[in-house]
Amino acid sequence: MAILVLGGAGYIGSHTVYELIDAGREVVVADNLLTGFRAAVHPKARFYKLDIRDRAAVDALLEREKIDGVIHFAASSQVGESMSDPLKYYDNNLGGTTVLLQSMVAHGIDKIVFSSTAATYGEPERVPIMESDKTAPTNCYGETKLAMEKMMGWTGRAHGLRYVALRYFNACGAHPSAVIGEAHDPETHLIPLILQVPNGQREQISVFGDDYPTRDGTCVRDYIHVCDLAQAHILALDYLTRDGESDVFNLGNGVGYTVNEVIETARRVTGHAIPAKMCPRRDGDPAQLVASSDKAKRVLGWKPRYDSLEDIVGTAWSWHKSHPHGFGGE
Ligand code: UFG
Q1: Pairing between β-strand 257-258 and β-strand 220-221 as defined by DSSP bridges
Q2: What is the pTM of this model?
Q3: Whose CA is nearest to atom 25 of ligand 1?
Q4: 141 is catalytic
Q5: For 135-194, what is each residue's pLDDT tens digit?
Q6: How far apart are CA 74 and CA 112, in angstroms?
Q7: DSSP string covering 259-277, please?
């Protein structure tokens, strides 16, 4: 029996496929390659180019392959774009998940691990954030992810499907082999943007706001290594295989770093001065997002291996240095 990874050519999906194959699992990947890369797919995974909104294609895959459980990353994930083009997010994220769940129910596949986000919380009431805290998304991306969680809950009640939703905080870093890593177009995330400076692709990094109520005035985030996120998906699938109940888990390191601290870490790692320029706040950025991941540790047995920001940025730097154009050429 194989694990089906939808969106397995994307950033977190491709790292999860590498971890699954390293753990000796049989893996089938499906991806429409709109934002993912064929080169990011592990050579030992069987690959299908398909869009999860295409019911006939999803049905054909589930009929052809013997699938035991699904890990679902196939979604649009840019906060800014979700605000300017919300219907794209409803169509791709909610429409795609509707079709996927319909096909899973029709084929008797009852386990799904799902890529959710800290954006489901919106502006936090307190840090660290617990899974039981209020969910009030402040952007359409988070809204659709929260709706996807609820869709799985109602489908589970009606059809016996069980799900685990993993709410990631700030995913970052790259596979230690530097064979795969982060590659977005356009890139909006802090660490890859910082590393474009020592890579000669950017003059300086813009710091979005230094008047937040934090220790140095810049935003605080919880940076978690992508391979640690990947491990959590395997543990979540094993939990569902052991008849675990549907549930939601935060995934973060539980430690917050300011934007200035991340830039300082990147200076140490790369040996480059990395000039920074103070800019106005970016719309919709909460001052602080830090996870309590105690529940994932307790229930899933998850233990992040990368707890030093320096190590995390070091893996990202190895990837970006060796792949300055991502998967587009070395
Ligand atoms: N930042 C800068 N300069 C930049 C880019 C980012 O100062 O050029 C700052 C942002 O303002 C923020 C921090 O760096 O304070 C991190 O920004 P990212 O864009 O890397 O990540 P976000 O915290 O905005 O996004 C993360 C996830 C999203 C999720 C969101 C929830 O990547 O998927 O948290 O708010 F939706």
Answers
A1: antiparallel
A2: 0.97
A3: 170
A4: yes
A5: 999 999 999 999 999 999 999 999 999 999 999 999 999 999 999 999 998 999 999 999
A6: 13
A7: HHHHHHHHHHHH-----EE
